[in-house]
């Protein structure tokens, strides 16, 4: 599979990705650290901005294997971690008056890469693995910046971002695996605070 050279996109700041009721902004360890350092937050303050979204029905291990960001074991059940949302669906950090993100410099990888997602193709004959880039389903669904009228994307920029994203996700998923194993083996109390502390300790 080759890289798609025909992707067209330009953010027109419609705000849909920040205000969609059904969009959860997944946060991985690097996002938590970036926001924590950018806003100079304590553990308790980080807990104020994060939601631990517990599944109604715990996913099977096969379902978990297919997830880009696996959930973590918590005291209340298996949960995704994401930025909190306001009751109207807006992201916690969306500034309604200015119609923009209030933490743009520190925003999570999910927001940096939207409306794209990446896959990686490892080829042992090649020095560097190949990155493929696609529109996400949500992007196709509501991003106003996708369309023939927009310029083709700067592939070099996006592929670089894709590589960084895949590297960060891989590190994050190792962390989650370790956490979930520690919970299973009763080596740690699976509180939200302990999980954030584990992330803080990565620095
Ligand atoms: S962090 Fe910023 S860019 Fe990301 S969804 Fe929230 S308001 Fe939008
Ligand atoms: S939905 Fe697309 S165009 Fe609208 S703010 Fe998000 S990235 Fe930009």
Your description of this structure?
The chain has one domain (16-200). It has helices spanning 16-19, 29-39, 43-49, 61-66, 109-113, 137-142, 155-184, 192-200; strands spanning 50-54, 72-74, 77-83, 94-95, 100-101, 116-121, 130-135. The termini are far apart. With 203 residues, the protein is of the alpha+beta class. Bound molecules: iron/sulfur cluster (2 copies). One iron/sulfur cluster binds next to α1. One iron/sulfur cluster (SF4) binds at residues 11-17, 114-115, 143-145.
Judged by helices, strands and strand pairing, the structural class is alpha+beta
> Which stretches are poorly predicted, pLDDT < 50 over at least 5 residues?
none
Approximate shape = globular
How helical, in percent, are the residues?
25-40%
A few lines on this structure:
This protein has 203 residues and is α+β, with helices and mostly antiparallel strands. It has helices at residues 16-19, 29-39, 43-49, 61-66, 109-113, 137-142, 155-184, 192-200, and strands spanning 50-54, 72-74, 77-83, 94-95, 100-101, 116-121, 130-135.
Task: Name the features.
single chain; 203 residues; alpha+beta; three-stranded antiparallel β-sheet; two-stranded antiparallel ribbon; 8 helices; binds iron/sulfur cluster
